[in-house]
Structure formats: structure tokens, C-alpha cells
Amino acid sequence: MKPGLPYLSLITFLPLAGSLVVLLLPKTQERAMKVAALGASVASLLLTFCAWTRFVPSAGMMFVERHSWITALHVDYYVGVDGLSIAMVFLTALVTPLAMLAHWKLKDNVKLFFFLFLLLQTGMFGVFTALNFFHWFIYWELGLIPMFFLIKIWGHENRTYASFKFFIYTLAGSIGMLVAFGFLWMATGTFDFVELRSLAANGDLAKKIAVFVGDVNGRFGWHWNVTTFTSVLFWATLVGFAIKVPIWPFHTWLPDAHTQAPTGGSMVLAAILLKMGVYGFLRVVLPIFPSQVAAHVDILLLLALASIVLGAFAALAQTDFKRLVAYSSVNHMGYAMLGIFATAATAGPEMLNEKAAALNGAVLQMFNHGISSAALFFMVGVIYDRTHTRALAEYGGLRKIMPIYAGVLGITMFSSLGLPGLNGFVGEFLIFKGAFPVVTTVTVVATIGLVVTAVFLLQMMQKVCFGPLNEKWQWLPDMTACELFIGAVLMLFMFLIGIYPAPLLDAANDAVLALVRLF
Amino acid sequence: MSVPLGYYLMLGGVLFCIGLCGALTRKNAIAVLMSIEIMFNAAILNFVVFWYYLHNGALTGQMFALFAIAVAAAESAVGLALVISVYRHYRSVDVDEMKALKG
Amino acid sequence: MNELVKQQWLIPFLPLVAAAVQSLLPRKARKLSAGICLTAMGASCVLALRAFVGTLGHHEAERAVWNFVWFDYGTTRLQLGFILDPMTAAMALMVTFVGFWIFVNATGYMSDDENFTRFFCFLSLFAAAMLGLVVANNLLMLFMCWELVGLCSYLLIGFWYFKPSAATAMKKAFITTRIGDVGFFLGILMLSWQAGTLNLYDGGNGALEQAGKLAGLHGWFGWSMATTIAVLLFIGAMGKSAQFPLHVWLPDAMEGPTPVSALIHAATMVAAGVFMVGRMFALFTAGGSAEHPTFAMDMVLWVGCFTALFSATIAVGQFDIKRALAYSTCSQLGFMMMALGAGGLVPGQFHLLTHAFFKALLFLGSGCVIIGTHHEQDMRKMGGLRKYMPITFWCYLIGMLALAGVPPFAGFFSKDEVLLVTFQRSKVAWGLATFAAFLTAFYMTRQMFMVFAGKWRGGHHEPHEVRWNMWLPIAVLSVFAIGLGFFGGKYEHYLGVHEEELHGKSLVMGLSVAVGAAGILLGWLMYGRKTMAHAEEPDPLEVKLGALFTCLNRKWYVDEFYDATIIRATMLLGEFWRVFDNRVIDGILHGIAWTAWGVSQVVRWVGDEFVINGGFDAGCEGVRLTGREFAKLQTGRIQGYLRILCLGAVILLVIWYLK
Amino acid sequence: MNIVFLTLSAIMVLGAVLAVTLRNLVHCLLALVVFFLGIAGHFFLLKADFLGAAQILIYIGAVAVLILFAIMLTRNISGTEGGRSSLGGAWWLGVGLASSLAGMMCVFVRRSELVTKLPYGATEEGVVKEIGKLLVTDWVVPLEIMAVLLTAALIGAVVIALEEEKKR
């Protein structure tokens, strides 16, 4: 490929540059900070858009930049996007400025907030573009630290507990991953995702691990078993991602963190940080450990199923608006995981199209959930700003005084519920369509989730918007123009993908097919 | 003219030490500054001397001297401003009285 | 026909555009809003009529389809498509026509509601979704529209959202149908897996065209694949068409404005289920015969039959004018299903059409009554309306006679065909259905007498006749309620289905007329001879039946049963998993955290406090003392420093020199 | 040995010694000017005409005048230091250290092989033009930096000298 503009580096580091600008601005220039932060983020968005228009799905990795970095460790600065990541990069570029806009009226500690936010964006971009574990991991952790502070400083009443739980849990998960990759490096001498993938595909990875284990045993007189060792590596990596997704039973940090985070933090957390985990499955777990995934697919499917069903049931019992939305994320991520694991459930090319449908659906679901959960959390934030309560029982009849809010919340809710015509449906349909022939029983049980999702979302809608108006909220103003703008942008994408999902699917399909063919 | 290099160097050294002596002994801050100017000039003289004896056709030595002169000028301007500022504060330019940094 | 099918998309598209435009209209633009809606619906009606005329000339069961690609995935693609065949054309014409008059009526019914434009927006969307469902040649597209129909019913039932009962009813409607939809969804998944396509007709490759092949495959529970899929699809139809046990949402749906009830119970939502079963009929029958019908057919037959009777009994015990009609709808849908289950595609579909007309008429008529009596819905507080609302009375009477199956009204012909085809299949079902027909005649008579006969019991406000835009639609519909029945034979011919000679025609017809007359007679005996004098007076039937009547009035306690079992179990499960998360999973997490904390405490006390901290403190003290001593060297005198510097230089030089 | 060199050096050393020992600061300044002139003379001797001119302009024209202003701003006009000694308490220490350093330096110079080194060769005329060219070509960046430094020093000096005034 001929070298062009270094899109990915520009996209990734623009927010970082913006964060430095925010840092250098004098403390009193709050408006300038906000404008600078938003400007940097929007510039990234425009660049991402340009990149997408130049994106060729069949070309494999696009916009590749590869520079030798740490030669002693064979580490390259290696970035690129393919069909699996381009949508995620776009999602990051789209949701982050909206989340910033949601905090346009922020008063306390403006500089730090926008600085951290831009830093977070760089981290997220980096995770979706980096192709070398070394700097990928740096970005991975970079996504963690600003979020910790966002929750810790601007969070709600129980923020300390939530932020520590989030931080320590995720960190603990990634430590296992780091160790696993350390061993992989010792065995193969590379941190390169693409290279590891091709090693795994032609069987060299297993051979190299076997040689490495033999070497270790010979040198220290230990008795490591190659299969066990590989499984340990696999599980260490998987748990790191599973915590991030999160898959049941690693999900309990999520309701706390989401509930306590400030609105923009929740939006980004749900829309993008969770996708980092799912993306990890697509980029790391499936390509590098295909046979291990296939070997343990029953357990994994059960966990995905538990996420779907139990997440939905737990959401049903929530009394806190934001917590309910947070649990809906567990449920929705469960669908994506179902699609991903269904891919690994059978070997051979017989069910190629079914598995491709499931995986395409999972990719689409990632994007869709990014849009609709961001919108849902934003809507929670809008109402929280006005009422300073998140208890569902406190609301009621808000549609009477806030008709626009009710309308936007309704559309968002139905998008999350998977109503045809809105984005959620296409992804879920594809996942189910693909998973049903492959893992019929699991899919049939998973449909319980569809019903329970509808129940808790409609119950939420009823408690917030319908019924008699709670007299306390007589004076509440409807959504402001700025808030409506954020909602409108997100809704635009809900309708767009719901009616015409082809651009997203076309972008992803080639990469998905390549991934499916690994099994 | 055939003065050997050594004499010039000794001259520079002596002048430098005279300046040093002044900087070590004078109480008046302005006098100290003047002594420092003497040290500076001795050093600059050395630059020129080395250039003259060892220049190999290049003008680097002179350039260095030129820049040193400019820096010295800047230094003396700031130094004297400091002295005036200190004088305003202490009503004195006695260096023995400037000991606010005592540990 | 091949050109016409390419314009089928316009039929749902026009109301959709109208809905989209209205969602952006300000509240005040009432006239504009209604105008846009009626124009769009009228135009759709004209298009549907054109399509209908286009299909008329063909004697064989011809159909034209037009499929297009929605998106690609894997190495294949997902298609959607439109269809034009007689069933679609007739249905589309009915929906647009009845829908148009319901819209007209709604302009009157909703005239003083503040959310007038919003109402018409939802109504248009509803019509668009229903029409999309009708013209879809793809099960996925059908399902999508099906869900949108559900959405619109949700929005419209909860139109008066500030009433807690409406807020609950809207949720109930959506969730109950959603439960059915899961079955439908699984059916779609199964079909797309087994047939490899979701297109219904696709030049020989369509899903329905493969029904024979599917009948040869093994499915679940020992059924053939076709039957499995059909059963799953029928679960969806049960939800949508309010068949037992998923019927509970329909009566509650009366919380919506009355035009909505008319639309839901006549032209659209409930019709969707019956229509879908008709559309997928090939799958239901595949692998079975008249002697040995498939399980799917049996299921449709008996569910329909039971619902017809069950709902009819409940309708007898209702006092709310709309609720009684709602249960009557349930019952009539049961008739349709029963006909389909008995293998009578034509009677089922024909009854759907005629029922749409007279049930829309009845609902709109009840709407007129409600408006005329200043929003009174309790029949006990009505009475004597014949005098005050003559036009409404006559139209309502026509509708009632049609529903009761009195010749020569439309209902008589279609219901007669239904009973006839059921008679061929199962005498038991036929008997039950005939009894249900008797009950139908009875409860409709009861309603007529309670509402229109006797004298006004409603209090001070005297009722009045409604304005023209409300009575005109029912007048138009009543023309069809009279005349449509005569086209039954033509319709069979039109659909291109040639059914074998049916026996027992005269018996069935005679009995049907007889039970209709008996029902009306009984109704007159109990309610007409001596009309109610006061609103508080007990119902004559209540006096006769006692506890059984209460049971009917409370709808056989099905809702209470669901509340106590399924809903309660669901909520408990939710609570359980919430507590599980908070106690067990988080408990384990906290346990790990506490353990780590405990270990760190021990390490702190044993190791740090004595060893490291002790040493550290001593070190600190030393550093501090040293610092204090050395600080004394800092005289602050610059010349002192300079001296030291100088000394250092000299010493260095001396050392160097000595070296 | 050159008579001009010796004379000039003697005058310079004298000027320097007077500049650091005289009690009256104005006198010191005059002696310092003599010293500056001597340095300039040496520059001329060493064929560094441009530097010599720069030395006179900068040191005598600017620095000396600046020092004079400083003296007048901090003392009465005569610039004497009153009855107190002009030298600090440990003056003998300073003198001793400086002279021992001077001694060591001379020793090292004598030990070096450079001692007898004679001039490199005939230094061509027209060096000034060359310097001008070099300043705007090879040395343009240092020159610019120098300009910035001087500007900064100028502003800095003004700010420092003004600061106390503002506080009052």
C-alpha cells in the first residue's frame, strides 16, 4: 500500500495534543478549555470520517504505520485498522465529543476533567488501532486511569468504592494478560498481533510454546505440561477481557462504576470501554487461541448465556435508573459474546455463512450498543441533572412536562430493546440467526433474555415517563437545545443503522469471514 | 610581533585573578560586579589570543569572543538591575548584609 | 402485475411519510396534521385499489414478487421483498379503506385532545406498519412490521399515559405480544436455517415453495420441520391475535382512545396474526391431509375454538361497552383461527375481512356513544340512546346484526362458512363454535338493549348526537356490513382456491341461523322486555347465575392467575439474581479484597512497623540532624561560597600538579 | 618580546589592580575604563580590529556608563563608602586564594607546550567583512538567540529594577 497521511497516528494523538493545550490554558479560561477539548475531539472525528471514506474492506489492514521502536524486544510501533476495528474507531470518535458536550456546563475542575477526557480518548483510539501488544497494553491501561479519576472526582455519592472496584478489578484482569503475553513473547519473540495470528493459524505457535515449555523444564527441572500451560495462558488472557466486557460472573464492577460515574463517564464507559473487551476477543483471543476457544466453548457459551439471562433478570429488580441501564449493558454484551462464541462452536466450513452472520452481528451489536447505551446513559444524566435523584420510584409522568425528553428516551429505549427499524434489531437478529443453527439450545434459552429485556425496559419507561405526574417535578424544564443535539446525533445513527446497516456490515464482512475461516 | 603564546596566557590568568581577588574581597556589590567584568574580559582576551595563535584560517574564536561580549553585556545589565533592586530593599549594597538565604 | 408489484412499497410508504412529517409538526397544526394523514391514507387506498383491480383479471392464483438486497453478509445476502397476490391486495384494500374511515372518525373523537397531532402521527405509523406487513414477501420484513405494529399499539394504548391503568395496559400489551413474538422469532430462525431464505416466494426457491421439502425433515418433538416452524410461528400469531392464553392484553388495550380500539381490533393488529397464518398456510398444511392434519393445524383449530368460546363467555359478563366488544373480538378471532385450522383458508380470510368492517363499525359506534354520553363507558349508566342518537343507533344495529350472524348481513355469510368448514373437520369443534355463536348473538343483544333501549340512566347531562365526521364513517362502514357478505363465493374464486364439495351445508346454515335467533330472543327476554331502570340495578343475568357471573365478569381470573404465577415468578427471579450479584458475587469479591487487606495489615504490623519503619525512622532522624548541621554552612554570604569555590580550584590544581 | 605588549599589559594590570582596590567607586570605574581600553588595545594588536571596536563600544560606551548610573543610584554622588573599610572581613583570605590561583595558573602555563607557540601566520585583512558574512550565514541562529537574550535581559532588567517601585 502506498504511504498516505498517517491517519491513525493523527487520530490517536490529536486528543493528546488537545489535552496538552487544555493543560497549558490558564485556569480561568474554562470556556477556551472546553472549546479546545471539543475541537481536538471533533478534529479526530473528521479525520476518522475521512479515513472511513478511504477504507477498503477487502484490503486487510489499512492505514498501516510501522516503525521500528524498541529493537531489543522486537517491538514496532505498528498500527492499522481492518473491518473489526474501523467501526470501533468511528464509535470512539463519535461518542467522546458527545460525552464532552454532555458536560458543557461543568463548573468544578474543568481543566482536569477535559484533560482526562482527551487522554482517555487517546487511550481508546490506541486500543482499537494498535497491532502490537506492547503499546496496545499501554493504551489499554491508559484507558483505565483517566476513567478512575473521572469516577473518583466527579462521581456520585458512592464514588470511592466504585472507582476502586473498577480500577482494581480491571487492573487485576490485565495483569494476568500481561503475564500471559510475557510468556508468549518468550516463546515466540514477538508481540505482534498479526504475526501471532498467523503463527497460530499455521500451527507454529503451539510448536513454539511446546519448545519453550521443554526449554523451561530442562533448565529448571520442572514438569510443566504444555496443554495446561497453554490453557493457563488462554484463561489469563480471556479473564482480562472478560472482566472488561463484562461477562457474567465478572460483571459486578460494572453497575457500580456506571452508576457512580458522571454522565459523560458512563457514556464512554458503556459505549467504548466495554467494547475494548469485546474487541479483545476479536483481535486477540479468537485469532491467537482458536483451538483453546474451541475446546472451552461450552463453558464460554454458558457464561454468555448467563450474561444475557441473568443480566436481564438482575436489571428487572433494580430500583435505580442508572443501575438498571448498567445491567442492560451486561445483557447486551451477552448477545455479542454469544455471537462470538457461536463462531467457535463448530469446526469446518459447513456453517460458514451462519457463523459469519453471528460474528457480523456481534460486530454490529458492539456498535449498536455503543450508540444506544451512550444515549441511555445520557438520558439518565439529563434527568439526574434536573432532579438529583436516580430512584425510579421518585419519577413518574414526566412525559407531561418533558415531552421531548420522553420521546427521545422512548426511541432510545426501543433501540436498546431491539425494535426493528432501529439499530438494535439488526445486530441481535444476525446474532440469533447465526447462532441458532450452531448452538440451538443456547440460543433458544437466550430468547428469554429478549422478553425480560422488554419487560425491564418498558417498566423503566413506565416508571419514568408514564402515570400521574409526581408533583415535585412540576417545574422541570424540557431538554435544552444542546442536550437535544446530543440525543439527535445518536438517534440519527439508530435510525440509519436500523434501516440501512449495509455500510457497517460491508466494512466488517471481509475481516469477519477471515476470522470465521480460522475455525 | 613575536610574543609567545605563554605570555598572553599568563597575562590573562593574572588579570583573571585580580578580578577574582576583587570579587572575593570587596564589600560593595557594584565593585564586585566591576571585578567580575574584569574576569570576563580576561577570559575574552584568552579567546582572542587562542584564535590569533591557533586559528587555522577560521574565525570561530572571534565569533566566540563576540558572543561572550554580548552575553557579558546582558549579564551586567541584569546584575546592575539586581543590585538596584537589592539596594531598594536593604537600603545598602553591602554584600555582607545580603544573607537572606542563610540556612 | 409485475409492474404493479414494484409500486407496492408505496402503499405503506405514504402513511410512513405522513407519520414522519407529523412527528415534527407543532401541536397547534391540527388541521394540517389531519389533512396530511387523510391524504396519505386516501392515496394509499387508491393505490391498493389499483393493485386490487390489477389482480382481478387473473383467474389462477397468480402472484408477483419483487425482492431486493438489504445487506450482504458472509458469502451470501439478506433479501427483503414485496408481493402482490389476491390475498395481499384484498387485505391492503381493506386496511386502507377501513383505516381511512377510522381516521375520519378520529378527527372527531380526538378533536379536543391536546396531543392531536401526536395521535395522528402514531395512527399513521400504525397503518404504515400494518400495510408493510401485508405487502411483505419476506418473513423477516413481515416480522419487522409486526414488531412495529406492536410498538404502535403500545404507543396508542398508552396514549393517555397519565392514567396509571393506561400506562400498565400499554406495557402489558407489548410484553404479552412480545412473548408470542419470541416464538415467531424462533420460527423465523428455524425457517431461515432450514430453507436458507426468508423470502416467501422467490421463483421456486422461496421458503413457502419449499414447504414440501421441509415437511420431510425432522424437527422438534417428533414433528416434521414444517410443523415445528408452523407451531413456532403460530405462537407469534397467538400473541398478536389475542388467542388464549395470550389474550389478556386485548381487553386492557381498551384504555386507548376508541379509534385506536377500532384500528387494533378490526383492521390491523389482531388481523395481523390471522393474516400471517393465512400467509404461511403452506407450512401449516405441509405434510398433512384432510384425514390426518398436521399438529400445527390441530393446534390452530383447537386454540381458535377454545378462544372463541372462552372469550364469548367472558363478553357476556362485561359492563364496559368497549370491553364487551373487545372480548367479542377475541372470540371472532378464535372463529377465524378455527377456520384456518380446519383447513379453510378462504373462510378464515373472508371472515377476517367482513369482521374488519363490522367490528370497526361497532367500535366507532361505541366511540360515538362514548362521546355522545360525555365519556361514559359503563353500559349500566346508559340507556335510551336510540332517541338521542338515531344515526348511531341504526348503524350500530346493523353492526350488531352482522356480528350476531343474522342473514343477510355480512357476518352471517362468513361465519356460516367458518362453521361449515369446521363441521367437515370436527363435530365437537363445530358444536362448541355454534354455542359461541349463540352467546355472540346473546351478548350483542344484551348490549343493544342496555345501551339504546329504555330510558337514560346517566344523570344530568343529556346525551347528544355526534357530528358528521364521526357518524359518516360508521354509516359508510354499515353499507359494507350489509353488502359484503354476498361476495363470499367470488372471494373464494378470487383467491384461486378450489375447495372440495362440502357436505352438511343446510344443517350448518340452519342451525347457525337458529342459534342466532335464539340468542337474540334470549337477549330480548332478559333485557328487552323490561329494561333496566337504575344504574345500580343488578344485571338480570347476575341474578340468575350468581357466582358464575362474577367469575365471567372477572374474566375467569386469568389475570389474577398470571399475576400470582408467571409475573410473580419473574419478579422473584429478578430479585434473586439482583441479590445474588450483590451478596454472592460481590461477597466473593469483597472476601478476596478483605483477605488481601488482612494480609497487608499483618505484614504491616509484623514487618513494616518494627523492622522497616523502625529503621526508616532512625534513618530519617539521622538525615534530619545532618541536615541541620550542614545548614549552618549556608551562611547566605555569596563571597564565602566563592572563596570555597576558589579554594577548591586551587586544591584541584595542586593535586593535578603533584600528580 | 615586544615593547608594545609589555607596556600595554602593564597599564592594564595597573588599571585592574586599581579598579579592585580603590575606595571611591567612581575612581574604580575610571581605572576600569583604563583596563577596558587596554584590552581593546590588545585586540588591535592581535589583529582583531572588529572586536576591539566592539570592546570599546560595548564596555566603555555601555557597561561603564551603566555602572556609573548604578553607582549614582545607590550612593551619594561622590560614591565613597564612608568611613568603613571597602574590604570585607576576610580580605587577606581572598587575596591569598586569588594569588595562589594565579600562581598555579602560571605554573601550568609554563608547563604547557603551548608556551612557545608563535602566531599561526599572517592574518589576512578584511576580517570584518568576513565576520559580517559569517554572522548572517553560519552563525545566524546564535545571532538570533543572542538578540532574544539581549531583549530578554533588557526587559528583565527593567522589570527587576521596577518591581520594588510597583509594590510601594
SSE layout:
The complex is a heterotetramer of chains A (519), B (103), C (659) and D (168).
Chain B (H helix, E strand, L loop, with lengths): L4 H21 L3 H26 L5 H31 L13
Chain C lengths: L1 H4 L4 H15 L5 H27 L7 E10 L2 E9 L1 H24 L6 H20 L3 H19 L6 H32 L15 H5 L9 H16 L8 H4 L5 H10 L1 H11 L1 H5 L9 H22 L4 H21 L3 H28 L12 H4 L1 H15 L5 H16 L1 H26 L15 H16 L4 H8 L9 H24 L11 H6 L1 H7 L4 H74 L6 H21 L1
Antiparallel strand pairs in C: 1-2
Chain D lengths: L2 H19 L3 H21 L3 H26 L16 H21 L15 H10 L3 H28 L1
Helix pairs in contact in D: 1-2, 2-3
Please give a structural write-up:
The complex is a heterotetramer of chains A (about 525), B (about 100), C (about 650) and D (about 170). Chain A has about 525 residues and is mainly alpha-helical. Chain A is built from 22 helices and two strands. Chain A has a domain at about 295-520. Chain A has helices at about 5-25, 30-55, 85-100, 110-130, 135-140, 145-155, 160-190, 195-200, 205-220, 225-245, 255-260, 265-290, 290-295, 295-315, 320-345, 350-385, 400, 405-415, 425-440, 440-465, 480-500, 500-515; strands at about 60-70, 75-80. In chain A, helix 4 (about 110-130) packs antiparallel against helix 6 (about 145-155). The longest helix of chain A has about 35 residues, at about 350-385. Chain B has helices at about 5-25, 30-55, 60-90. In chain B, helix 1 runs antiparallel to helix 2 (about 30-55). Chain C is about 75% helix and about 5% strand. In chain C, helix 7 packs antiparallel against helix 9 and helix 19 (about 410-425) packs antiparallel against helix 20. Chain C is elongated and about 140 Å long. The model of chain C has no long low-confidence stretch (mean pLDDT about 85). In chain D, about 75% of the residues lie in helices and about 0% in strands. Chain D contains six helices and no strands. The model of chain D has no long low-confidence stretch (mean pLDDT about 80). Chains in contact: A-C, B-C, B-D, C-D. At the A-C interface, helix 7, helix 14, helix 16, helix 19 and helix 20 of A face strand 1, helix 6, helix 7 and helix 26 of C.
Q: Briefly, what is this?
A:
The complex is a heterotetramer of chains A (519), B (103), C (659) and D (168). Chain C has 27 helices and 2 strands. Chain C has helices at 2-5, 10-24, 30-56, 86-109, 116-135, 139-157, 164-195, 211-215, 225-240, 249-252, 258-267, 269-279, 281-285, 295-316, 321-341, 345-372, 385-388, 390-404, 410-425, 427-452, 468-483, 488-495, 505-528, 540-545, 547-553, 558-631, 638-658, and strands at 64-73, 76-84.
Question: What topology, given as strand order, has the largest sheet of chain C?
Answer: 1-2
First-last Cα distance of chain C:
114 Å
Largest sheet of chain D: none
Tell me the major beta sheet of chain C: 2 strands, antiparallel
Low-confidence stretches of chain C: none
Which overall shape of chain D is indicated by the principal axes computed on the Cα atoms? globular
